[in-house]
Design a protein that fits this description.
alpha+beta, seven-stranded mixed sheet, two-stranded antiparallel ribbon, 9 strands
């Protein structure tokens, strides 16, 4: 494929496609345009009961955009449950550039001064494209996802794209839709502008949790 630039990458997201690598050490990239796309509808976002108790205990300090590169590296790490990842050096370089341009964000869980989990994604128009997450402490990536959704709702986002649906995401309400349905949702989101809020007050997050209790 043609060597990617941040501008080309943003255009790809706006068109409904995204890049991946075959493996961490593969230098090449390829475009992905799934027949079936994963999304997480805001109005159906569900926090499982046990996790809701964990979130309310505030086990982690939540920060956004404080350690984007560390989150990116954490997502690229091989683990016992994930021996290989799709994030190679070019992916890292591209998304660091998007972060510097204000188009990528991270949600981070910190414990005793250490980064123990988080996620990152791309923000464009009123769509957020979730890319990857990692966890070094129990529930850290799940807690980060809850804080992400709270911020996206607050900021007026209309689409949370998960790319694919895993068992991990399905428990939160993620669903699969056909490509043409996804393209319609994406086009609508591109016609609007949302705001990513790195800071969210305790009161605003409590209100978000209360709303999820009623949905659940």
């Amino acid at each position: 494929m043609t060597r990617l630039t941040p501008k080309l990458l943003l255009g790809a997201y706006a068109s409904g496609i995204f890049p991946m690598a075959e493996s961490r050490h593969d230098r090449g990239l390829f475009w992905v345009d799934p027949d079936v796309r994963g999304i997480l509808p805001f109005d159906a976002f569900h926090i499982p009961r046990r996790l809701r108790r964990t979130v309310r205990r505030n086990p982690f300090q939540i920060r956004c955009d404080a350690a984007f590169e560390e989150v990116l590296r954490g997502c690229a790490e091989a683990t016992s449950g994930r021996p290989e990842t799709w994030i190679n050096e070019e992916i890292e370089m591209l998304y660091r550039s998007l972060f510097d341009m204000g188009f990528a964000h991270s949600v981070e869980c910190w414990e005793h001064g250490e980064l123990v989990g988080g996620l990152y994604g791309v923000s464009l128009g009123a769509a957020f494209f979730g890319e990857s997450m990692f966890s070094r402490a129990r529930d850290a990536s799940k807690v980060a996802l809850c804080h992400l959704v709270a911020r996206l709702e607050r900021g007026g986002y209309r689409l949370l794209d998960t790319q694919f649906v895993t068992d991990h995401l399905r428990q939160f309400g993620a669903i699969e839709i056909a490509r043409h349905e996804y393209r319609d949702l994406l086009a609508n989101a591109m016609r609007h502008q949302a705001t990513f809020y790195p800071e969210l007050s305790a009161e605003a997050f409590a209100t978000f949790l209360h709303s999820r209790t009623h949905i659940s």
